[in-house]
Amino acid sequence: MKIDSGTTAWMLTATALVLLMTPGLAFFYGGMTRAKSVLNMMMMSFVAIITVTIAWVLYGHSLAFSDNSMSWLNQFVGGLDHVGLQSLVDTATKSDGTGMPSLVFSAFQLTFAIITVALISGAIADRAKFGAWVLFSFIWATIVYFPVAHWVWGTGWLNTLGIEDFAGGTVVHINAGAAALALALVLGKRKGWRKEPMRPHNLTLVLLGAGLLWFGWFGFNAGSELAVDGTAGLAFMNTQIATAVAAGAWLVVEKMRDGHATSLGVASGAVAGLVAITPACGFVDPWAAMLIGLIAGAVCAFAVGLKYKIDVDDSLDVVGVHLVGGVIGAVSLGFLAAYPFLEQQNKGLFYGGGLTQLGLQVLGPVAIGGYSFIVTWVVGKIIDKVMGFRVSAEEEVTGIDITTHAETGYDLGTVHASGVASPNGPAVTPAPKKVDA
């Protein structure tokens, strides 16, 4: 089939936008940590780009998007038809009539896998061994993300049943949120949690990261239509609507509850809106996008405080924003889905549909969240037993940046107003000049 240049150009752009989200997440998470672990936090996002890319090329695309020769097994994981991606080079374009090169589709889906893994890292900030995280990212992508992507977007069992997930509310956010909860339980609480202040050290970085996520998310959501058409436009507009409303709703909750509307609140609210609209953006009307954003912003603003009630140190609120926001978005389709694009899918309850779609939209989060939580907990425990998943108490107190990476995010001790920078050490204050009598 002839390549459609318009679709291909848009999908290359969307792919780049989604990849940009992972460095954006690094800024967002990095600013939320303490200064002594900002580099480690950002490195966890960047290393996910490395490990997941390697796994994706070797077998990830194949497990997610090829058909397994054993029909019963195909309901759960794909086959090995595209190992190494050479078959995608040979087939040139997808067979679905979009005119998109198969490799472009693969690259687009790769960026989703990358950021899903990176999202998990926010729950274990300040205390995870870097080597253990590298190993975990390989294993988790292989046995959790790739099969779950097959369930929903491939030819797996949830897709066969007719679940709706336009851009990854279940595959990405519920999946990552459930894994984050499990890993936070495996590693335990940070030293001094609830006793020492652990506030974000750089809200400027947080806002920068949130802005990059917001920008890149248009590729994430609108690009998931895999075409340049009205549905892509609807997804684009709904993304903007829900995000803005959610950010505003979070600020209102903060103002009413705490007396202050904060920069962290507007950033977190925006991300909550982005998460919630992700599964629904191409299936709902704009008024529904406003409702989803309103609910997500308000509910997630309260949900981030649940970690104190259940005594789980989810360091950067991955569970409260991504798991809760993803569930809100996924379940909302059972009520608000207005544009079913596949014959086996049903409209939501508010549009004359029955309970079938609502049941599916509840089943998806339960199945994916449960699978992700259990497998992540088991993998985390095994890694912890074999090589240790958590740094020592001394390293944690000193700061992972210096103990693991031999670097610091801020070298503030080398320059002073009254001194000069020394290339080999701390600032040196010039000796006073002699004054002749």
UniProtKB/TrEMBL annotation:
Q: How does it sit in the membrane?
A: Multi-pass membrane protein
Q: Where is the Ammonium transporter AmtB-like domain?
A: 9-410
- The organism's superkingdom is given as Bacteria
Keyword terms of this UniProt record: Ammonia transport, Cell membrane, Membrane, Transmembrane, Transmembrane helix, Transport
The record's InterPro entries line, in alphabetical order, gives: Ammonium/urea_transptr (IPR029020), Ammonium_transpt (IPR001905), Ammonium_transpt_CS (IPR018047), NH4_transpt_AmtB-like_dom (IPR024041), RhesusRHD (IPR002229)
What GO terms are given for molecular function? ammonium channel activity
Where exactly are the transmembrane stretches of this chain?
12-31, 38-59, 103-125, 132-154, 166-188, 200-220, 232-253, 260-280, 286-306, 318-342, 362-380
Compartments reported by the entry: Cell membrane
Question: Do you know which Gene3D superfamilies this protein is assigned to?
Answer: Ammonium transporter AmtB like domains (1.10.3430.10)
Q: Give me the Gene Ontology terms describing cellular component.
A: plasma membrane
Keyword Hydrolase on this protein? no
Q: How does this protein assemble?
A: Homotrimer.
Classification via PANTHER family: AMMONIUM TRANSPORTER MEP2 (PTHR43029:SF10)
Q: Which family does it belong to?
A: Belongs to the ammonia transporter channel (TC 1.A.11.2) family.
Q: What job does this protein perform?
A: Involved in the uptake of ammonium/ammonia (NH(4)(+)/NH(3)).
- The protein's name in its UniProt record: Ammonium transporter
**Lineage in the entry?**
Bacteria, Bacillati, Actinomycetota, Actinomycetes, Streptosporangiales
